[in-house]
């Protein structure tokens, strides 16, 4: 029987070489060949191809231990740039990143309720970041991380503002840019970021801000569901006949644990606008109204978290909210509310990084650009 030809195997080897460079770079060709158990000639030929494309670079010379010094290779940090956006009902942020996914520049604007006006803000955001790129370098791609529901074919199913619904944001952007573009739900992008930063582990993440989202990563893949809408945890019903929700139901989780709804509830109680900083201060003063609201927050978040753990049995259960960040002893109190004898998780993590959606989106973009199964960060096991 004839074995597979080198030509057939080359794309597979290219993927493996790229993943090895991402995970272990800077690394010599000899070490890449040894790790992958392929010939040094194959590694040399693939690295020549990647060098020509400017995607990898000679990074340094290995310390001499006698004999010839080995040249080390790494992903070329300046081989191209990624522009990653977060689009939420309140802000549109843009981040310029290099190929090592380091942040180079950052910009933020207010979202407009009208899709067409916001689309112009999106174009301005991208164009202003393009201007900051070194002229001779290409854009690898644009990542859009959207705090709303998007279908697998990139149509907006649900967003806070009506004029955005049924729009194909990716198609609209493709008329202006010819590079690779991806469109992700922001909670999914945040979950992917965390999975990459936790040695590519399985996890679930509940993020609470203007809305409530759930990101699910299993086997290095985001769980999307049939249409792409999986993870709409903000609209699971936690209180029969509860607070009416814009989605048409009553008693949705979002109405009880999103940061905006909590501050709104507190503002009504206090009869004045309450910001997250006011919340933090009032909590530190044991304000009775804040304690009452926090009590409900614990109650409904525990229902949601218990349900997620029972459905997915994640390795890591991650919670992200400015309300949580304002409660110093949150995790000790909250853990006591998660004592299911049925299911389990390895670790509960509180996480805050307001650019993790943009960075997670950049990881997903690089995954597709390099045509690898999943993104792997340098130093991951
Ligand atoms: Zn709802």
Automatic annotation (TrEMBL):
The keyword Repeat does not apply. Pfam families: MarR (PF01047), ROK (PF00480). It comes from the Bacteria. Keywords: Carbohydrate metabolism, Xylose metabolism. Residues 17-57 form the HTH marR-type domain. GO terms for molecular function: DNA-binding transcription factor activity. One of its GO terms (biological process) is D-xylose metabolic process. PANTHER family: BIFUNCTIONAL UDP-N-ACETYLGLUCOSAMINE 2-EPIMERASE_N-ACETYLMANNOSAMINE KINASE, ROK (REPRESSOR, ORF, KINASE) FAMILY. Transcriptional repressor of xylose-utilizing enzymes. Belongs to the ROK (NagC/XylR) family. This is ROK family transcriptional regulator.
